[in-house]
């Protein structure tokens, strides 16, 4: 029996630092029946130059003005020839057996999506390694790291940097919600799950994902993550554990402030104990502690903005 044809889709915007590594890893797959579609989504760096090097090997689409990752992927999905759509990001390096391992999860017609696991690239920056460790420690990528899984298992969500969908199911669902990023993968999987579809993860399907390399990029990422979750809560209500966090955080913050006015000495003692506990949790690594504070500030600020966002502006 012939192997199913797979369309691999990568949305790239200003990806000159990682795009070649991503494309080379895909072209080195041990799976023969695939096409690679890269969407240059309004890049103003050398992304287009890099894509020209792969003329004949890669189907390249160019959006003169950025339309966002969700719409960029949807455009490629409409043009794709494969019966399966496989997505990864331009800052990811895929394992050689990546496509085969994702396909291994489609052992039943009821399964519409299979994802995989994320690891740290060998040449990740020291800051990027700290970010990755911090996010695993705090559970921000517990849905994506999949370190606890040993075999193929049901999940509620897979990250769009490492996922495969049946093309008909993806298109019938309307694809990713355009204008939403990040969180477009969470939103699509939520709709698929509500419709009774099965979503799996195969931890053997691995991509190596680069993380933010600067404080500013990390803070921006946290704000966007928070904004996306806030928007989804406004649209659908609470349906993920992480979406409860802001309500707990702001409730405790309010009580803490009230307590400080009435019991000032005790307030400083409790605050000191809390800071020591957090410091011990992060092994008194000052830079990781700062990441924690930035995460609290920017993620929750983003969440508040997302909750107040009634609709998306499609580019």
Q: What is the CATH superfamily of the largest domain? A: Spore Coat Polysaccharide Biosynthesis Protein SpsA, Chain A
What is the annotated CATH architecture of the largest domain?
Alpha-Beta Complex
End-to-end distance: 43 Å
The structural class is alpha/beta
Query: What is the class of the largest domain in the CATH system?
Result: Alpha Beta
What is the CATH topology classification name of the largest domain? Spore Coat Polysaccharide Biosynthesis Protein SpsA, Chain A
Order of helices and strands: EHEHEHEEHEHHEEHHEHHHH
Please give the count of helices.
12
How are the secondary structure elements laid out?
Elements: E1 6-12, H1 19-27, E2 34-41, H2 47-53, E3 59-63, H3 69-79, E4 84-89, E5 92-94, H4 98-103, E6 111-119, H5 126-138, H6 142-145, E7 153-154, E8 162-166, H7 167-172, H8 184-194, E9 198-209, H9 215-236, H10 245-262, H11 264-281, H12 286-307
Parallel strand pairs: 1-2, 1-4, 2-3, 6-9
Antiparallel strand pairs: 4-8, 5-9, 6-8, 7-9
